[in-house]
Design brief:
Elements (H helix, E strand, L loop, with lengths): L1 E9 L2 E7 L4 E6 L5 H11 L15 E8 L5 H9 L10 E8 L3 E5 L2 E3 L1 H8 L3 E4 L10 H11 L3 H27 L4 H16 L6 H13 L1 H16 L5 H18 L3 H4 L1 H23 L4 H21 L3 H19 L1 H47 L6 E3 L2 E8 L2 E5 L2 E3 L7 E2 H4 L2 H14 L8 E5 L7 H14 L4 E5 L3 H4 L4 E10 L2 E8 L2 H11 L5 H16 L1
Parallel strand pairs: 3-15, 3-16, 8-14, 14-15
Antiparallel strand pairs: 1-2, 1-4, 4-5, 5-6, 6-7, 9-12, 10-11, 12-13, 16-17
Helix pairs in contact: 5-14, 6-13, 7-12, 8-11, 12-13, 14-16, 16-17, 19-20
């Protein structure tokens, strides 16, 4: 149940902390008092888009916080886990929404979340029905969902949806190959040419870098000879060469070591340096001897590099990309040349997927066909309680020519509110007031299957009155044995049946208006019901007292 709802600076509500009890909770008040703000606050909790115009004048932000105490938490825990949050483990679920002038924030048990998560949670927390929400009854898709819930076939419907999706994917893949990829001989010839073009080059990964390195050396051979000879000559040629100078230094170092042997350790590195420079001079001479400048070889390398550049320009930015292009072209050519075999395999996949659709769909159809007359009878019984004594309600199923996304059949609720009238689709027969009662009848029929803890009915008793209003209230009272019900109403007959009764009033103070919510009991409740009955006259009060007495007896 919803145990606590806090609202701050939302429209006319300045600061509200509403503690709710289980069962049927009635909310009344004069038109314009602010009852709709409660519904608006709940919609924000359910992730509805936030309008910054809701922020109370003079405030920078508005906030809504709801605390839910849940008995079954599997579905909610799964959503929490998907978003990296801890399971409830017996604790309350607290959802908080803060709307500012420039940003919105939402929190679940203190952790920031995205608004989409609130929508997912809301599907398992609150079922909200306003004056026009009964239009969902006109949706044949929604009607099927109701029938599946009544038949306890939700899991089977989910299994069918998976099978149907797999079948459609297989059909799409088959049709794609059979139609859109029918290649002309010209396209096949082009693929063959591209593969031959690449294979003729005999490319290897790493070859381009190797040849570029060799070409760089060959193209700069004269300069390399010049630089190596220069280094070698500077090291060893002439009396002023580096190595000749080092020989003189070596004699002096040797003499120093004789005079003071302790210097030997610190001067030991000199000999190693002298040897390394000698090795360097030898290396330079050897390198020069190994340089062979052959114009023909240089030309061959340049031709090979031209091949690389041409293929990269045609098929990719690197040799690796060109080779990958070749493999993809081979696969496509193979698919086109062997399309018949591929089509046969895809056709077999389509047939297998269709067989699964027919199998699961048949099981689902059987459950629906068994449940449909029972649901119709159950709804008819609740309609009779709501004043449709002679109404006829049926749940006919019509087989589809081909499997559809929701099953092998469609449903279209049929309704005849008055004797002698032919059955017609519900959307064509029921008025607004009748649709509200039909919605309540359907909800009553599905009460056992509906696991959503809180139902909110926002003035769905509009356009009904008298004994029918009391019947609507009695039906909600029965629903409240399985769900917590918040009924926002203008009907005293319904309000009198509520286990707890709250009134929304407007207060004017210091040139500001604010809405307040307060619980009414005993005499105050009699006064409120009398007001709803037309005024605080003695006859209205007596009528109000009789309604409360009747509610207590009921």
């Amino acid at each position: 149940m919803l145990s606590l709802l806090k609202i701050q600076n939302l429209a006319l509500v300045e600061d509200l902390s509403w503690e709710l009890a289980p069962g049927l909770v009635g909310v009344t008040g004069e038109t314009g008092a602010g009852k709709s703000i409660i519904v608006g606050a709940l919609k924000l909790i359910l992730g509805e888009r936030a309008d910054r115009g809701l922020i109370r004048t003079g405030a920078e932000t508005c906030s809504v916080e709801a605390m839910f105490d849940l008995k079954k938490t599997d579905a909610v825990d799964a959503i929490l886990a998907e978003n990296g949050l801890d399971a409830l483990n017996g604790e309350s679920l607290i959802i908080r929404r803060v709307i500012g002038a420039s940003s919105n924030k939402q929190f679940v048990n203190g952790s920031p979340v995205v608004s989409q998560m609130l929508k997912k949670l809301g599907e398992h927390l609150v079922d909200l029905h306003g004056p026009h929400d009964h239009q969902t009854l006109n949706s044949q898709e929604r009607q099927l969902e109701m029938l599946d819930a009544y038949a306890s076939a939700d899991d089977l419907a989910g299994k069918y949806a998976i099978a149907y999706s797999a079948w459609r994917d297989a059909v799409q893949e088959y049709e794609s190959l059979a139609t859109s990829e029918r290649a002309s001989e010209q396209e096949i010839d082009m693929l063959r040419h591209q593969i031959k073009d690449i294979e003729g080059a005999n490319l290897k990964e790493g070859e381009e870098e190797e040849i570029e390195g060799r070409h760089r050396i060959a193209a700069n051979g004269a300069r390399l000879v010049e630089l190596c000879n220069g280094v070698a000559d500077r090291l060893s040629e002439g009396g002023s060469s580096i190595l000749n100078g080092l020989r003189d230094v070596a004699r002096m170092v040797h003499e120093l070591e004789k005079i003071d042997p302790k210097l030997a350790e610190s001067l030991g590195g000199f000999q190693s340096a002298q040897i390394e420079l000698q090795e360097m001079e030898i290396t330079m001479r050897d390198y020069v001897e190994g340089i062979e400048i052959e114009p023909a070889e240089l030309e061959r390398m340049e031709e090979r590099m031209h091949v690389f550049q041409t293929l990269k320009r045609k098929y990719g930015g690197s040799v690796k990309a060109v080779l990958e292009f070749k493999e993809q072209a081979k696969l496509k050519l193979d698919r086109l040349e062997n399309r018949g075999d591929a089509l046969e395999k895809l056709k077999q996949a389509v047939d297998r997927a269709r067989a699964e659709v027919d199998k699961v769909g048949g099981e689902l159809s059987a459950k629906r066909k068994a449940a449909a007359p029972k649901l119709a009878k159950d709804i008819s019984g609740h309609l009779a309680d709501l004043g449709f004594k002679k109404a006829v309600f049926e749940v006919p199923l019509t087989a589809n020519k081909e499997p559809e996304r929701d099953g092998l059949e469609t449903v279209d609720f049929q309704f005849a509110p008055n004797p002698g009238e032919p059955l017609k689709p519900l959307r064509l027969t029921a008025s607004s007031g009748e649709m509200s009662r039909v919605l309540l009848a359907v909800k009553s029929a599905l009460a056992k299957q509906d696991g959503i803890p809180l139902m909110v009915f926002d003035e769905i008793d509009a356009n009904v009155g008298g004994n029918i209003a009391e019947a609507v209230g009695r039906k909600m009272e029965t629903l409240a044995t399985r769900h917590q019900i918040i009924a926002i109403t203008h009907m005293p007959q319904l309000a009198s049946l509520a286990q707890s009764h709250f009134v929304v009033v407007k207060e004017f103070n210091e040139k500001r208006t604010r809405s307040l919510l307060r619980e009414v009991k005993t005499e105050e409740r009699v006064d409120e019901l009398a007001r709803m009955l037309g005024g605080k006259t003695e006859s209205a009060r007596k009528h109000a007292e009789s309604l409360l007495a009747g509610a207590a007896r009921g």
